[in-house]
Amino acid sequence: MCYMRWTRPKRRTTQEEGNRHALSPASIFRILAAGITLCTVLGTASCFGASSEPDQPTAPDAPKEQTTPINVVASVNQWGALAEQIGGVHVKVTSILSSTTEDAHTFEPKTTAVDTLQKAQVVVSNGAGYDSWATKNLERDTVSVSAAQMVGAVEGDNPHLWFSSDARNAMAKELADTYSRIMPKQRKYFTNKLKAWNRRETVIERSMKEFSDTHKNVSYAATEPVAYYLLSDMGLSDKTPESYTQSISEGSQPSSKELQDFQKILEGHQVDMLINNVQKAEDATNILTGTAHKSDVPVIDVTEQMPADSKSLISWIAQLIKQMNEAVSSKDDATSSDSDVSPSESNGKQPSSDNPDSDSDAATPDNTGQTDPGK
C-alpha cells in the first residue's frame, strides 16, 4: 500500500501575511452599510455613545367616567317609570309608548322612535314577543335590559310582566347594576335608590297578602288576561272560560258560544268581579261589560300602558289593588246586610293603606316627565 507523503506548507513572508488580512474596498463598503443599518435599528444614541436613560413605559390614561345622565330608552312607560325611579338624576329616560290608546302588540315605530332607540345607552324592554320592535337593530354597545330575560319568559307566555312582583324586583335590581357599571362612582347612589324602591314594593306586596288573607275564595273573569300576574299574586282564581281566553290570546274574535258561556258566568254571579282591558274596546268586550253591569258584578278597568295620572309603576298597581278591595268589600257588605255586624266591622282586617310613594327618598318623577317619540 502506498501512502501519500504529507508536505508542510511553505511559510509566508511578513509582507504576504499582511496582504492576506487586508480588506478590499468592496468589503469595507459592505461593513459600513451594515453598521449604518444597525444604527438605524438600535437608535442613533446607542451607536454614537450618547448616554441616556431608557424610556420608561407610560401608563395608559384611565377612561373618564361618564358625568352626564345615562341615556335610557324604554319601550313602554311602565318600565320607563321604573327605570327613572332607580336612576334618579343620573338618567334621562325616554318612553316610546306612553299612551293608553296605543297597543304595543301591534305598534310600528316611526323613524324618530327607531333613531331614539339606536342612540340609547340602555334599552329597557318587556320581551316575550310583546315589544320585539324595541330591540331590533340596536347598536353593538347598547345595553339591553329585558324583563322576559330576567324571569325566563318566552314568546307565547303571558307578556304583561310589569304586573308580576318577581319581574318588577328582578328588573329593579338589574337596572341598578347596569347603571352602576356605567357610572361606578355613583354605585352607592343607585344602591340607595334601589333600597328606597324595595321599601315601596314591600308596601304593595303586603297589601296583596292582606287582601288574600282578608278575602277568601275571591274569583274573577277577564276580557283579556292583562292583569293575570297581579291577580295571581293577590290569590284570586281565574274563572274566565278557557275557550274564550284561547281565542283572545290568539288574536281572534270569540265565537257567539264563547260569549254566551262568558255571559252565563256573569249573570249567575259565579265571579266576584270582571277585569276589563279598556285598550281592547271591541264589540265583544262591550257586550261583556254591559252584562256585568246589569248583573251587578263590579267591573275593574285596567290598561296596558301606565295612565298619565299615575306617579309610578308601584302607585299604579297600588291603585288597582285598592279598587279591587273596594269592589269585593262592597259585595261583602251587600251579602251581610242582614247581619247585626256593622259594615265597617264585617270586612275584618283591611289591606294596608300605606302610601307606597310616601318613602322619605326623593320624590318619584311622574309620568309626564317622559317623552314619547312614538307619537
Write a brief structural summary.
The protein is α/β, with parallel strands linked by helices and 375 residues long. The chain contains 14 helices and eight strands.
What this model shows, in words?
With 375 residues, the protein is of the alpha/beta class. It has 14 helices and eight strands. Helix 4 links the parallel strand 1 and strand 2. The longest helix has 28 residues. The N and C termini lie far apart (115 Å). The N terminus is likely disordered.
Relative strand content: 5-15%
Name the strands of the widest sheet in spatial order: 2-1-3-4
Helix content: 40-55%
Cα-to-Cα separation, first versus last residue? 115 Å
Shape verdict: globular
Rg calculated over all Cα atoms: 38 Å
Low-confidence segments, ≥5 residues, pLDDT <50?
1-11, 44-53, 341-349, 362-369
Please give the largest β-sheet.
4 strands, parallel
DSSP helix count? 14
Class by alpha and beta content? alpha/beta
Provide the residue-averaged pLDDT.
82
Layout of SSEs?
Elements: H1 14-21, H2 25-42, H3 44-47, E1 70-76, H4 77-87, E2 91-97, H5 111-118, E3 122-125, E4 143-146, H6 147-151, H7 165-182, H8 187-214, E5 219-222, H9 228-233, E6 237-238, H10 242-249, H11 256-267, E7 273-277, H12 283-294, E8 299-302, H13 313-335, H14 343-346
Parallel strand pairs: 1-2, 1-3, 3-4, 5-6, 5-7, 7-8
Helix pairs in contact: 4-7, 7-8, 8-13, 11-12
Entry keywords:
4-stranded parallel β-sheet; 14 helices; alpha/beta; 375 residues; disordered N terminus
